[in-house]
Amino acid sequence: MELNLIKCHGSGNDFLLIDEITETYTFSEKDRQNLAIALCDRKKGIGADGILFVLDSDKCDGKMRVFNADGSEASMCGNGLRCVGRYVTELKNKDEITIETMKADLKISREASIYAEIPTFKVQISPVLFDLKHLPMNIDRHTLVSEKVPEISDTLTFTAVAVPNPHLISIVENEHIISNEQKCISETVNGPNTLFPDGVNVSFVQSLGSDGIYVRTFERGVGFTNACGTAMSASSLVTCLAGMNHYEQEIDVYNNGGKVRVIVHRNDEEFSMDLIGNATYISRYKLEVDVKEPESYQTVEQSEYDEEGSYSELQEFAKDVVEKNVFLKA
């Protein structure tokens, strides 16, 4: 079959976007898994963190399904949702849309550029669930908010939250960022373990003072990634709970792929976040693919977009902030 796709990214978290609204593709669940494993392979495939399948919806402007590079399906992806939001707003010539995801229908809007002339979109991150059964996490308590988990670390405290992807978040100092600690913890809770039977995203968060926060995430099914949208949103929430940042105010969130802004909303005990950042197109592909053996695909056409230059300026700016406040303090 002939397959058209766009390689895109949000905060350096890169994806292959496949349009099932205007195209007549018919994929089985196994096809989607196989395509993700083959095409996202950075050595033998095009290379990406996952595939964004954009489908019709009976109740929204479109529907997003996300398959990670290992073939697993994610319930949500904030960086990917911005890319899907851009694609559908342009397809339907709208500035505001709603996209159906696995757990919720989420609002997306076109926003003023976050930096230079970068296409920027705001996406709603919801629901926010603290009950550990939603991650799930097997421990003798209902919630985990800024508490120690001896099975994971004797010194660090953690907050667990589903948004709806499961996240384990620790506010740390720079010595923890530059150590091997996050890698060891992440590999433990995403390997055979009793605490997180389905694995969990693990984020270390460091305050950058007036500049904002730095978030580094080990994403289940991916590993260390340039950025994870739901992790940055959940981490911003955790800093508000800890009193480091304030509700209803923009928080600059730096990551290894650039930066975003997050606004945390609180209504009594209900929370939601707005995630604001880029949706950048890198290249367009036309492939000849046998979905039963996608690893044998052939590239028929490939063309490049000219958007990456503007985004690289933001990356350099973010890199300078992070190096000054994190790595050069070691």
Question: How does the SSE layout of this entry go?
Answer:
Layout: E1 2-10, E2 13-19, H1 29-39, E3 50-55, E4 62-68, E5 73-74, H2 78-92, E6 96-100, E7 105-111, E8 120-125, E9 147-148, E10 157-162, E11 166-171, H3 174-177, H4 181-189, E12 201-207, E13 213-219, E14 223-225, H5 229-241, E15 250-255, E16 258-267, E17 270-278, E18 280-288, E19 298-304, H6 308-325
Parallel strand pairs: 2-3, 4-6, 11-12, 13-15
Antiparallel strand pairs: 1-2, 1-18, 3-4, 4-5, 6-7, 7-8, 8-17, 9-10, 10-11, 12-13, 13-14, 15-16, 16-17, 18-19
Written description of the protein model:
The protein has 330 residues and is α+β, with helices and mostly antiparallel strands. It has two domains: 2-126 and 279-317, Diaminopimelate Epimerase, Chain A, domain 1, CATH 3.10.310; 132-270, Diaminopimelate Epimerase, Chain A, domain 1, CATH 3.10.310. It has six helices and 19 strands. The protein has helices at residues 29-39, 78-92, 174-177, 181-189, 229-241, 308-325; strands spanning 2-10, 13-19, 50-55, 62-68, 73-74, 96-100, 105-111, 120-125, 147-148, 157-162, 166-171, 201-207, 213-219, 223-225, 250-255, 258-267, 270-278, 280-288, 298-304. The protein has a 19-stranded mixed β-sheet that branches. A hairpin with a 2-residue loop joins strand 16 and strand 17. The longest helix is centred in the last third of the chain and has 18 residues, at 308-325. The model has no long low-confidence stretch (mean pLDDT 96).
